[in-house]
């Protein structure tokens, strides 16, 4: 789920990822990037908002980037949207 | 679905909203805002990416804002994430 200063959003509950972001900040990170693809993008926004509004009131969103990735699936190649939310403290 | 220069994302197919964005640009809008809440946020990113990559190559994302709204539901008040993607041409 996490790499240095990056939290990848999957299908787990929002709070799992909020905890991961808070843990990264508390371990000294000044910047944490939340990354998601496809339907997990909505959850990534939830994670950023819950982190900012309820756990780390001094954090804020520095940047949000969206893009498209090509992925291979059983039905051949297809496009999937991606999003990165960069949070700072 | 649309207000002046704003496209609200619901549960329809992505292409419905891409068409709405393209129509607004073709009717003279220089800026179109895509608005979504909750799970529709992922679809809003799809709409922006498909519009930019396949229909209006000269358009780009000017700004992305996320926030939280309080909404009343049968189970009382709850929070929902919101997103606004501002596209320009």
From TrEMBL, chains A, B:
Cellular localization per UniProt: Cytoplasm; Chromosome
Entry coiled-coil feature ranges: none
Biological processes, Gene Ontology terms: chromosome condensation
SUPFAM superfamilies reported for this sequence: AlbA-like
Keywords per UniProt: Chromosome, Cytoplasm, DNA condensation, DNA-binding
Main localization (coarse): cytoplasm
Domain spans labelled DNA/RNA-binding protein Alba-like: 5-66
UniProt KW Cytoplasm keyword: yes
UniProt-listed InterPro entries: Alba-like_dom_sf, DNA/RNA-bd_Alba, DNA/RNA-bd_Alba-like
Task of the protein: Binds double-stranded DNA tightly but without sequence specificity. Involved in DNA compaction.
Database matches in HAMAP family: AlbA
Protein name: DNA/RNA-binding protein Alba
Species this chain originates from: Candidatus Methanoperedens nitratireducens
Record gene name: albA
């Amino acid at each position: 789920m996490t790499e240095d200063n990056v939290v990848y959003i999957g299908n787990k509950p929002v709070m799992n990822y909020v905890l991961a972001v808070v843990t990264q900040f508390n371990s000294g990170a000044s910047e944490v990037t939340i990354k998601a693809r496809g339907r997990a993008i909505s959850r990534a926004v939830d994670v950023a908002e819950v982190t900012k509004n309820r756990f780390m009131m001094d954090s804020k969103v520095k940047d949000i980037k969206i893009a498209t990735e090509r992925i291979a699936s059983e039905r051949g190649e297809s496009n999937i949207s991606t999003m990165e939310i960069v949070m700072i403290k």
